[in-house]
């Protein structure tokens, strides 16, 4: 990253890592010297700053939109281009998107900079391991606004906005309790594999991104209609309207995230840095409210760190599930895990999974409501599992249904 995030050192004192409210039932476990030292180091080396006074060395007035000088923009984009295998050189279309975002999206981009410390290390590690351009991490800003629970009108979900069928084809688990499209680690691994496949197919990163957005079929049709052209800019006007602006939007985000301070855009509402978190394996069915009752964490905080659990329930066996927590809460979780299970156990559902979906063949007289009722699922779930945009079904149509065996 050309413009590194400023890092500040925070001083933490062992034994005061939790501020427990008088009426809270949360409990704590004293940290060892080694644990406290490790947490201090993590905070000191991985705490991004949103202090505007540190970023605003050009003394911009709040809300000011700095002049976008073409010569300076070309020079900065040349720097980006030289450091990347992607084509990030200046062009008038990208210039237009940069100008629009700089003037109209500074607050949004500030939020993205605040969310980056949590998500970007995950993306960077996976991209490096797959030998992919680091700039692809910014695709998530375009796709989801770094929101793991983002959902498009077409049904795409997660940080990388996978459709149900694409997510399943990449090995992601999607059912009533789990949606791995929302999991930052698992969805990023799937996205890297998918992007690499698309790049190998087209040999051009922007055609690969266009295929990521619109599907390879639309890109292939655009190539044919263009007379066999083989770059994004040559086939751009043969692509769907949304996809025409997809690559310029990506280039604009790359530029403004790297040179944000030069455009009076600064990090806001910082999320906990990735290095301050850890995971613990959970093998029992456990609700988020049970965890929150024994730790000084609320359910909303648990949801933010564990977005793949759709109903705020860890579904338990036969799999051991990763629960993400701030590192300082791991000792308390391990100490009180057995007690958590006993907190209002009558509210914990019995969960049984079907490894593969049931295939139902639509019969005469069937409607989605009746099928959903018969299988104990929701109509919107059947629509999502099968990529249906409405409720119309036809006789002979095959539907995938992730049904609980008790309802069959």
Would you write up a description of this structure?
This protein has 408 residues and is mainly alpha-helical. It folds into 3 domains: 1-32 and 273-352, no CATH class; 70-263, Lysozyme (Orthogonal Bundle); 358-407, LysM domain (Membrane-bound Lytic Murein Transglycosylase D, Chain A), CATH 3.10.350. 44% of the residues lie in helices and 6% in strands. It is built from 18 helices and 6 strands. It has helices at 33-45, 52-55, 70-82, 92-104, 106-129, 139-144, 164-169, 184-202, 205-214, 216-225, 232-235, 241-244, 246-258, 288-292, 299-305, 330-341, 368-375, 379-386; strands spanning 277-282, 286-287, 313-314, 321-326, 358-361, 398-401. It has a two-stranded antiparallel sheet. A two-stranded antiparallel ribbon has the order 2-3. The protein has a two-stranded antiparallel sheet with strand order 5-6. Helix 4 packs across helix 13 (246-258), helix 5 packs across helix 8 (184-202) and helix 9 crosses helix 10 (216-225). The radius of gyration is 24 Å and the shape is flat. The chain starts with 32 loop residues before the first helix and ends in a 7-residue tail after the last strand. The relative contact order is 0.12. The model is unreliable at 1-24 (pLDDT under 50).
